[in-house]
Design goal:
single chain; mainly alpha
């Protein structure tokens, strides 16, 4: 049983008995930053352990990060271009530019959901801040994303006209995505300690999130729909999705404009807004995590 699971009634009562004695949000945030900074070696060890567990440090393990996006791309290409008969120039590259960042986010959130509960034995043996667990899990998924760039590079080689220095923006966009992903990872990690069905709920929500994100389509495609023309606020609702900005940014530097034009720089204003919002969300997620973590 986890040392800070709510199943121990006496433990929860001790931790939350006096609300006036609880530290402020700013104190909790500073405490979390110190804990993460002082446990860098532990985080590095946990990242390596995550990589070994899922085979991410071997060729055989990482080959699925190459094959899986290609298989997904093939399914979507068949469905959209052949069955739905939609014509998007170079659609394989169009969809691959969205599959890779989404797969990274989905894998990070799915693994972070159980990042605390599956380390019960380690938590019993060693006293350490639990916040390093979702941080390590989300960080380990960066390796998979890096391997996923291999099939993307193969597609770019088939269309050398889209290879440009703008590809150097990918790490910058990925850094913004990492900040947002880390916040989500913290929320689901501590939430799953108290609500064990959160993992099942999260898997369904992630599927819905993908369908509502401009992955199979672009926001420009939505503008052509009659319902969006009739209710323009729907465009704003879809655009408020963080992955609307992220996927559009990746596509701009990898694929180009929605009409099949050459790559262009990302929308820095939208990306900056998302970074600012993600930092605030990460701070709130950190405070939320620390609030649900009993004092002792």
């Amino acid at each position: 049983m986890l040392p800070f699971a709510p199943m121990q009634r006496s433990e929860v009562r001790v931790a939350f008995r006096d609300a006036s004695a609880r530290p402020s949000s700013l104190v909790l945030l500073r405490q979390a930053i110190r804990e993460i900074a002082s446990r860098r070696r532990l985080i590095r060890y946990l990242v390596q352990a995550e990589m070994k567990k899922r085979g991410s440090d071997t060729i055989l393990g990482n080959i699925w990060w190459v094959l899986d996006p290609l298989l997904q791309m093939f399914v979507y290409v068949v469905f959209v271009t052949i069955i739905a008969r939609r014509s998007t120039p170079d659609y394989p590259l169009f969809i691959m530019a969205a599959i890779l960042p989404w797969k990274w986010f989905q894998s990070a959130v799915t693994d972070a959901t159980t990042s605390i509960v599956r380390q019960e034995r380690l938590i019993r043996q060693i006293a350490f801040p639990k916040i390093v667990l979702p941080v390590a899990t989300a960080t380990a998924e960066i390796v998979g994303f890096a391997w996923g760039l291999v099939p993307l590079g193969l597609l770019l080689l088939l269309d050398s006209g889209r290879i440009s220095p703008l590809l150097l923006w990918i790490p910058v966009i990925a850094a913004v995505q990492y900040v947002f992903t880390l916040g989500v990872a913290m929320v689901v990690a501590v939430g799953n300690v108290y609500f064990r069905d959160l993992g099942n709920v999260a898997s369904h929500l992630l599927r819905l999130w993908w369908l509502l994100s401009p992955g199979l389509y672009s926001l420009a495609d939505l503008d052509g729909l009659g319902v969006v023309k009739r209710y323009p606020i729907l465009h704003d609702v879809f655009a408020a999705n963080p992955f609307a900005t992220l996927l559009d940014s990746y596509r701009r530097v990898i694929y180009g404009t929605a009409d099949g034009g050459l790559p262009v720089p990302p929308d820095l204003f939208a990306l900056g807004q998302l970074l600012f919002g993600s930092l605030i969300f990460l701070a709130l997620a950190t405070i939320f995590f620390k609030r649900l973590e009993p004092v002792r």
